[in-house]
Amino acid sequence: DQQVKQNSPSLSVQEGRISILNCDYTNSMFDYFLWYKKYPAEGPTFLISISSIKDKNEDGRFTVFLNKSAKHLSLHIVPSQPGDSAVYFCAASATQGGSEKLVFGKGTKLTVNP
Amino acid sequence: AAGVIQSPRHLIKEKRETATLKCYPIPRHDTVYWYQQGPGQDPQFLISFYEKMQSDKGSIPDRFSAQQFSDYHSELNMSSLELGDSALYFCASSLAGIAGNYGYTFGSGTRLTVV
Prior knowledge:
Chain A is mainly β. In chain A, the strands form two sheets. In chain A, strands 2, 4, 5, 9, 10 and 11 form a six-stranded mixed β-sheet that branches. Chain A has no helices and eleven strands. Chain B has one helix at residues 99-102, and strands at 5-7, 10-13, 19-24, 31-37, 44-50, 53-57, 64-68, 74-78, 87-94, 105-106, 110-114. The chains are: A mainly beta, B mainly beta. Chains A and B meet through strand 4, strand 5 and strand 10 of A and strand 5, strand 9, helix 1 and strand 10 of B.
């Protein structure tokens, strides 16, 4: 049972436009949500996170929105750059039990075209 | 800045052999995590250690074992290898209590191929 779902395996956008990556989750115990970016032959790199008590977190060109009632979060990248082309993983953590393990979605491959 | 170091980067083993993967966390990080990523799959949590003690366990087969040593490096031991064990194995480290806000730092992974 996939607790974190990224239903779009790929997304293609033009340079300068907005990229919106979506993620849904099923476990209401998740209290942190994170986005990771992964290039081929490298490990995932942490991008941005959001706590379940917030609905928005912004860091430069990256903004994550959380809709708890819909169990949905999204990552907005504005403006998109060719260097943003990578696989983006949504991840979630339920830290109340003391564990900080991450549950990952299957990833969305973003391609930003020049 | 020092990152998470994993060795080897690539490993080819035959079925039924054993493999040992090593992970050197970022200095002062007290928690190590192991993840397995099969082809086209999401990373799956295997096991974690906090201050050299196992802190959580995921979908780790009984054929696998892991430990964290006094210098905080960790090793994943895999025995009786099967073809299905072929995957990328990632190690990550963090400071306990802040991983939710700041995430882990992942290593570049070890690509294990079982033939």
